[in-house]
Specification:
- It contains twelve helices and 20 strands.
- The strands form four sheets. A six-stranded antiparallel β-barrel has the order 1-2-3-6-5-4. The protein has a six-stranded antiparallel barrel with strand order 7-8-9-12-11-10.
- The chain has 525 residues and is α+β, with helices and mostly antiparallel strands.
- 20% of the residues lie in helices and 24% in strands.
- It has three domains: 28-90 and 99-120, no CATH class; 226-433, Thrombin, subunit H (Beta Barrel); 439-524, Pdz3 Domain.
Length: 525
Amino acid sequence: MSDNPHQQPRRDGQEPQDEGRLEPRPLYKPDVDPAWSAAFARPEGVSGSFDTSSAWRAAPESRDARSGVQAPPVPLAEAFSRPAEDAAGGAATEAPGTSLQRPPEEASPRDPVSNEPEPALWSHPSDPWRDPGAAAVLGGPARAADAGTSAETPGGGSAGMLSLSEVLFGRQVKPRALALLGVIALLLGSAGGAIGWWIGSTGSELTGEVTIAEAEAGKERPAGSVSEIVQRVAPAVVSIEVAAGPQGGVGSGVVVDGDGYVMTNHHVVASAVEDSDQEVTVVFTDGTRAEADIVGSDPKTDLAVLKVNVSNPTVIEVGSSAELTPGDSVIAVGSPFGLENTVTQGIVSAVDRPITAPGQGGDPAVTYDAIQTDAAINPGNSGGALVDSTGALVGINSLIRTGDAQGGGGSIGLGFAIPIDDAVEISESLIEDGSVTHAWLGVRAGSVSSGSSQGAQVQEVEEDGPAADAGISEGDVITGVGERTVRDAAELVVAVREHQPDDVVPMDVVRDGRQLTVDVTLGSD
């Protein structure tokens, strides 16, 4: 009890309120409808939310009886119950594809094109959300259980894309992948910068002006071209200078051996042969100068061999003059009029052309079987190289025919070279012995008539010579030596020199209109 006399005790055991306050209005509790109480009240004997008695679970019909469940109204049963043909079977006998509240076929709207009834909205089996009778479907997890696999949506598609902040700071991507992306970005940036730099350096502003790169000086020179051949041959062709007091002579030469042997013409070094005090100097294409010694010379074939002391000189490739035929391409390399490394090109005009020229300073006449060419050969080309289309040495340039009766002037397209086959044989003899011996007939002959090709007429016979011993006399006309036809005096000399001393050679002779053949044992000059 309270000490305040004015307080009165509350009903229902509550504490008395202060004097002057109204009591709460009593609760209004209407009577419960017996039908609702039968439907929603707890069964008898159940005090909690769930009935744990086995009898209640085992006998569901008693549950309906006790709960007072009434049958549904007839209109609702007709609207929402299963079709009559399936009612007896229940869920166990329901035909596949049958669904609740399917509109009758007659009431379904029809397609305006095919006039076929359209299916119900929920009749498709792949759309369980519109089928009230479908079982529950559980979707996949929002994220894959395995962190190493990418998450997918229940429909099979990829999960939502990540934002930049989630990629960088959300620990959604492995650090190794982020590093790889950074490297790729760096490479792409570098490539873009390089391309931009190249574009900026190769062109100027949009004015049409560009920077043109300089073209290389070299040109393509296919194998076998004149320029390619000359590049290989020229270093083996030298200039020869002969100092004769205040004056001097200039010619050409060809290096034919690695020991420093050089082929040239006798008339180039003739003055130095007579006067040993004169100096002979060889000048190479790179400007190197070297003093040369005369190994030997042959005035009758206009050939000489020099020797220079140089290390590892460029040596020309020696070919074969016997394989030449008129029309073959040839190249002449030499120093005409002192112009070093001059190159001219032409063809072989003739082979086995007997040519003769007077000797210099009391030397005997020069006679040999020449290669005739229309390649320009001028004074100073003497002793230079005549090479074929492969760059092989086939001749030593020696003589020219000019339009001047005194032998002056330049080339008129008639040049002559010593065949390399004969030059090699003579040079080997000069290197080994210092001299050369030729077969000798012992006659002095001349042409039958000027410009004729009737043979060589004997004008003088030396006593005790090979011709005298064979019975050849003055006035005889020699028309053949061995198997070679003799057309003039020059060809008689070269025909005899094709043989060796002491060879017995048959000769065709015309005497007083009669054809004779005599055997001659050749001598040595």
